[in-house]
Amino acid sequence: MADNPPVRIGVRLAQTVGITTTAFLAGQLAGISFLTIPAIMEAPSPLAVKQYQKVRNNSLPYTPLLVVVSSALFGYLGYHKCKLPAWLGWTCLHPRLFITAAVFVFSIIPYSILTVEPVDHKLENKAETLSTASLTDNSTEAGIHYQDTVKGLLDRFATMNLGRAAIAFAAAAMGTWGAIAHHHSAHLTSVGSLHFATGANRMGH
């Protein structure tokens, strides 16, 4: 019994950090798609692609870190909480939710490689091509199909990036559900232990 409180605190800390980190990641990615990119697209192409580079360079270092931390914490919670009493087997829903959340968060990495990075590379090439153009020149991409222009690529990036936000949001929701289910199963464990002890006392009488 003396070992339970530290474990309980550690699990709650992992739940709090995992859910908060994933929710922050979802909000940050959604903010880029809904707020930052549309604002950038208002600028001329040479300036827009330069602003995109700044946003990318600011978010690139910590986004993978948040993904790895969240995935590791949810994975730990899923593994840790599979160790349940046999009579509480039906409450193994929350370990599955944590593990699913871990897989979802980690899937942001391959999703990014397959969908976001190709657009990012094209925007980097655009930045190099337009590096000598005037930042206020609106005619630098005249005659180019919209999907191949800086604004077309930014539009596509925002859409693909929104997919990452949706994945992170789903993972945060599953982690929250798992935490609620865990709290419920912990309550059932306490009640079951109390009933067992009370029954044993009655038998002693």
UniProtKB/TrEMBL annotation:
Main localization of the protein described in the UniProt heading: membrane
Q: Does the keyword Cell membrane apply?
A: no
The UniProt entry lists membrane topology as: Multi-pass membrane protein
Which PANTHER family does the entry link to? Answer: ANTHRONE OXYGENASE ENCC, DUF1772-DOMAIN-CONTAINING PROTEIN
Protein name (Swiss-Prot/TrEMBL): DUF1772-domain-containing protein
Name its cellular compartments: Membrane
Sorted UniProt keywords: Membrane, Transmembrane, Transmembrane helix
Membrane-spanning ranges: 20-40, 60-77, 97-116
One Pfam annotation reads Anthrone_oxy
Gene Ontology terms: cellular component: membrane
Q: Which InterPro entries match?
A: Anthrone_oxy (IPR013901)
Its family? Answer: Belongs to the anthrone oxygenase family.
